[in-house]
Amino acid sequence: MCELFAMSSKNPSTLNYSLHEFSKHGGLTHKNKSGWGIAYYEEDGVFLVKEALPASDSPLAKYISDEARESKYVIAHLRLATTV
After folding, report:
1. pTM score, two decimals?
2. In the chain, at which end, N or C, are there fewer CB atoms within 10 A of the end residue's CB?
3. How far apart are CA 23 and CA 26, in angstroms?
4. Is 2 in contact with 32 (CB distance < 8 Å)?
């Protein structure tokens, strides 16, 4: 099953630690290694990134968690592909 992480806050906040820990679930500590994505709202629009790599192995995911900007709204997704 895929995993979701979401935050809605009255005041803008950075989520460096939370995003770093969540990205570990993308292949390091959990099996959700089929891809990941994150979106958050900024004053000038929406920031959206998605990748078909495990979040735990992604330099881009690490950069985003290390350099997280302040936001009131964030949603992240760790994908676990299934077969039919």
Report:
1. 0.83
2. C
3. 5
4. yes
Number of domains in the chain: 1
DSSP-derived pairing of the beta strands 3-13 and 45-51: unpaired
User: Any bridge partners for residue 47, and if so which?
Assistant: 40
Which residue segment(s) compose the domain that 69 sits in?
A: 3-79
Q: Does the residue 84 lie in any domain?
A: no
Which whole-number Å values give the CA distances from 79 to 5, 23, 34, 69, in the listed order? Answer: 12, 11, 5, 23
Confidence band for 8, pLDDT divided at 50, 70 and 90: very high
Measuring CA to CA, which residue among 2, 23, 7, 20 is closest to residue 70? Answer: 7
> How far is residue 15's CA from residue 69's CA, in Å, rounded to a whole number?
8
CA-to-CA distance for 68 and 14, rounded, in angstroms?
A: 6
Tell me, what CATH number does 43's domain have?
Answer: 3.30.1490
- Across the chain, mean pLDDT equals 87
